[in-house]
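User: Predict structure, ligand manganese (II) ion.
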Amino acid sequence: MKRQKLVIAGAGSTYTLGMVMSLIAEKDNFPLECLTFYDIDHDRQEKVSKATEVILKEKYPELKQFKYTTDKKEAFEDADFVFVQIRTGGLSMREKDEKIPLKYGVVGQETCGPGGMAYGMRSISDMIELVNDIRKYSPDAWILNYTNPAAIVAEALRRVFPNDKKILNICDMPAAIMVSYASILGKEIWDLVPEYFGLNHFGWFTKIYDKEGNDLTDDIKNSILNKGFVPEDSEIVNDPSWIKTFKQVQIMLKDFPEYLPNTYLQYYLYPQDMVKKEDINYTRANQVIDGREKRVKNLCNQIIADQSTQNAHLEVDIHGRYMIKVAASLAYNNCDIYIVITENNGIISNLPDDAMVEVPAMITKNGPKPFAIGKIPTFYKGLLENQLFLY
Ligand code: G6P
Ligand code: MN
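Assistant: Predicted complex:
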């Protein structure tokens, strides 16, 4: 098995430690030769990196090299994979994306509505620059991009790099939802095979099967309708905001019983309720700044001070695991099936060919091979087109 040279761009992120833990958990499936962190914010990245050094020394001694840099050449030269997780404007601009729309009584969310559009406009030019930088030094690397707002970023990259077939856009939300389905069924997420269609943060599971082909969709629906729905992944299981969001799935399913909705549909189907639930003085950005960001900072400080992870509560999360499994399937032609964002080209036959849709695909070393979905019902087509024609 060829060992991979991986770069994480935007490594100062609060998700990086979870990613490092996931790389360790997946080291047999996606073995690394070297790991490089890249960020434009030296200080933010340095803290995460110093903690990562300790973690890797303890738990990944086989890794030949770990380094962190703000230099593009040093970062991107000779990479096999680049995971892109940047946030243009940081959490302080996320706060504005949420609070400005709320001031006018409309949804204030980082990827939906006016805030999502603003974040999109902000992210596009940085993403284009970054892809150009990566391509300058590693024309052949796989770029796995999960930068938000993924729907808009994916569309921009499709238009600017139409011939670059080694950029794959991806989101962890369907997987995080499937972790909860798996828990309902007493199974592992990797035992489940989804059928799904939509745009990023705007889609539906139409079926869930197990690996033997048994249809488990009704078991999941009945459980949600009767008992509600809760997050189960370690990163979100105790987070009041995510608990509220998952709870809303029951209401969505009661009102629209045909398919199992992505959690983000709450912002489109019940915008006024979502506005009412928000506190304009303390939005999700504030929660993340006071919550995850502080927690990760303290965790890093602790690990650096101890030069050991013995007092650190480190967890593997679905976010990292999912990205790595997809990367492994790209690297080793595993032909696993994962939900990814890809150009429609007839997958959903009654949507435009150039739409960037979110669908299950077999992930091969030649890229995602999505399965045909055919025509979707008019109601969903209408909702999707409403979004598509915005951009
Ligand atoms: C999910 C979505 C991501 C999004 C994240 C926000 O994982 O798929 O696209 O970035 O939630 O979570 P947060 O906890 O920062 O609100
Ligand atoms: Mn997402």
